[in-house]
Amino acid sequence: MAQIDAFFKLMHEQGASDLHLISGSQPILRIRGEMERVKYKVMENDELKAMLYEITPEDKIKIFEETGDLDFGHEIPGLARYRANFFMQKYGIGAVFREIPSNILSAEQLGLPAVVKNLAMLPKGMILVTGPTGSGKSTTLAAIIDQANTIRKDHIITVEDPIEFVHKSKGCIVNHREVGTHTKSFSAALRASLREDPDIILVGELRDLETIALAMEAAMTGHLVFATLHTLNASKTVDRMIEIFPANQQPQVRSTLADALRAVVSQTMFKRVDIKGRCVALEILIATPAVRNLIREGKTYQIPSAMQTGKKYGMQTLDDAIMELLQKGWIDAAEAYNKGINKEKFVQLLKKPPEDFTEV
After folding, report:
1. How far apart (Å, rounded) are the C-alpha atoms in residues 165 and 146?
2. Could you tell me how far CA 110 lies from the centroid of its own chain?
3. Does the structure show a pLDDT above 90 at 101?
4. CB 108: neighbour CB atoms within 10 A?
5. Rounded to an integer, what distance in angstroms lies between the CA atom of residue 95 and that of residue 61?
6. Tell me: the pLDDT tens digits for 220-274?
7. How far apart are alpha carbons 80 and 27 in whole angstroms?
8. CATH architecture for the domain at 5-101
9. What is the pTM of this model?
10. Per CATH, which fold does 107-347 belong to?
11. Alpha-carbon distance values, 8 to 11, 129, 225 (Å)
């Protein structure tokens, strides 16, 4: 048993999402969104490095020594998987571990709307799940992929850095590929996947122009493509997909994206005030003919209005989703104001309106 396993067990027992091990600091857990120090001594660089290297593959140690950054997956059978990130900082080595549960929660257990669950049954196209780091994108995608794996009889390929949720083949065959271990890059794996007879492709993150272009190509050639982006809402997601390309290519990209896109699910995480735990607000954009025309014509600023009028298709804006959580008494008005898009919608619910110079 590795020395660090004791911290992983504590993390699991406390229900923490992240473990921070930093030279010059006590260990820290993120529990329900807040950082809490562990009653343990301040860790020195050499001691922490030895502890971390005990669970790190030799080839990964070499990469870290050369670059000062490292991502990889670590698993403790019977407990959980962990997404590990090592980095160098002023006082020495640092590491952050994100716990990935062994059990994949279903769409019903997560409380996802039926329209999100049904995305698993689409024959082709691109579905984007977006939101800031730690907003539960991977958990939502895992539930959708599990739904497809349970009901469909297809071939699913996942490309991640590192592998997070592990899906056992049910009705589908599932192949997991890890960037840096099983393939050189997201783009290389995507290019190769088109020759591997896939029906569903999961791309862990759309990081660059080439990966985005290949993902759109896969969606246009009869595959169902799921991917994540670090964007805050649906209209910004569409803008990001287009603006990463050179200006002279953007008209063609708008047309391609309009044809390829099926849905954008944008997530924001909130701390619950009624019970211990967290909940998520979802913005849902469905690519109806009206939405496709807005994308094709470069009128993405009208997408929020299209979501308001498209509620019968399962669409909802982030602000409406936040207001619903607020009315249920699940979240605090101040956090709703901080994370909402249209601040005017929430400012009247605050006991003391904040003096926020960024909103002037």
Report:
1. 10
2. 15
3. no
4. 11
5. 13
6. 999 999 999 999 899 999 999 999 999 999 999 999 999 999 999 999 999 999 9
7. 19
8. 2-Layer Sandwich (3.30)
9. 0.89
10. Rossmann fold (3.40.50)
11. 5, 28, 33
